[in-house]
Design a protein that fits this description.
Layout (H helix, E strand, L loop, with lengths): L2 H6 L7 E4 L3 E5 L7 E7 L11 H21 L7 E4 L3 H4 L8 E5 L9
Antiparallel strand pairs: 1-2, 2-3, 3-5, 4-5
Bound molecules: guanosine-5'-monophosphate (5GP).
The site of guanosine-5'-monophosphate has 13 residues, from loops.
């Protein structure tokens, strides 16, 4: 089981901010911005580079639309936010379970330090 599957299964506690049949969103344990939430598919796709086929396409589409909805619900709709998906070692991916970072609450520099 991946770390995030354990969070989905409530085997590891997390501060959950949104859940539906396909995705779970919870606060990052090591926030890089005043608001830092992760949204993950409940069914594991290891990383975006391995998303394939109609089911994964539907899941990834839903994940991104719900990421924006979660950002709005957390009050970031007016001020803005960043969605980030890391893929592989050079991308900074540390958990092999697709996740989209939702970052906001202050102006975010690009590229990140
Ligand atoms: P990545 O670097 O793979 O894109 O992002 C993984 C994220 O998961 C990191 O931002 C890290 O802080 C977060 N993370 C790692 N372990 C836990 C955990 O046990 N709980 C929560 N809520 N976040 C975690």
């Amino acid at each position: 089981m991946t770390l995030f599957e354990k969070i989905v299964a409530r085997q590891i506690p997390a501060d959950i901010v949104y859940e539906d049949d396909l995705v779970l969103a919870f606060r990052d344990i090591n926030p890089q911005a005043p608001t830092h939430v992760l949204i993950v598919p409940k069914r594991v796709i290891p990383r975006i580079g391995e998303a394939a086929g109609p089911a994964d396409q539907a899941t990834v589409g839903h994940l991104l639309v719900q990421a924006a909805a979660v950002a709005r619900r957390l009050g970031l709709g007016e001020t803005g936010y960043r969605l980030v998906i890391n893929n592989g070692t050079d991308g900074g991916e540390t958990v092999p379970h697709l996740h989209c970072h939702i970052l906001g609450g202050r102006p975010l520099a690009w590229p990140p330090g």
